[in-house]
Amino acid sequence: MPSTPEATMGAxxxxxxxxxxxxxxxxxxxxxxxxxxxTPRGRLNGVLFTVGWILGLAVLGAVMLAIASxxxxxxxxxxxxxxxxxxxxxxxxxxxxxxxxxHRRPRDPSxxxxxxxxxxxxxxxxxxxxxxxxxxxxxNAKNAPLTIAAGAAIGSAGLPVGQQIGALAVFVVVAxxxxxxxxxxxxxxxxRARTTLGDWKDWAAQHNVAVMAVLFLVxxxxxxxxxxxxxxx
Length: 233
Known about the structure:
Layout: H1 5-24, H2 27-37, H3 42-67, H4 70-73, E1 74-75, E2 78-79, H5 81-104, H6 126-138, H7 144-155, H8 161-188, H9 193-232
Antiparallel strand pairs: 1-2
């Protein structure tokens, strides 16, 4: 019996939520928004950074939907061969990148160092803060492959256009939770917010590489399996 649209939608959401969660817990954007919130215009800059992040995810995901839409990437509800090849390539990239990160992780977390560009956040204008949010979402080598994989999974599943947009919206919202949490603490947490956010920043900075390495290895292996399944079915 063919699956109903609802069952198909549920299966697609189950497929992409893992990618969204991985993007959401990516430590570098969380550290970046915490540093941005500590700038003189922290409230404005934090909101602009988050809006830029949302826009970056949505645009990159929408591009993948246009490329991998049912008319171009699915035949009788089955993903086209190139979709399987894309998943295979993304999976291989994530596994190799994850293994490289794990090998290069600091043996002592206290020795971890933040990227040099983060030291310049205090001097960025609101426009540049917004652009930074877009770049970390859509152009970052750690997040872009996950968003591309999610867009390809949604676009190649044979869903109606409305459900594709809904699935992408769910992905973007879940992928943004990692930024919304510190933003919410800053806006609602009062005097204790800076201490709480400082503790979060320190933990994320120390464990950034190890967290991303494990996520990439797990999701890369999943994508490899999905790609092989599409290419051999």
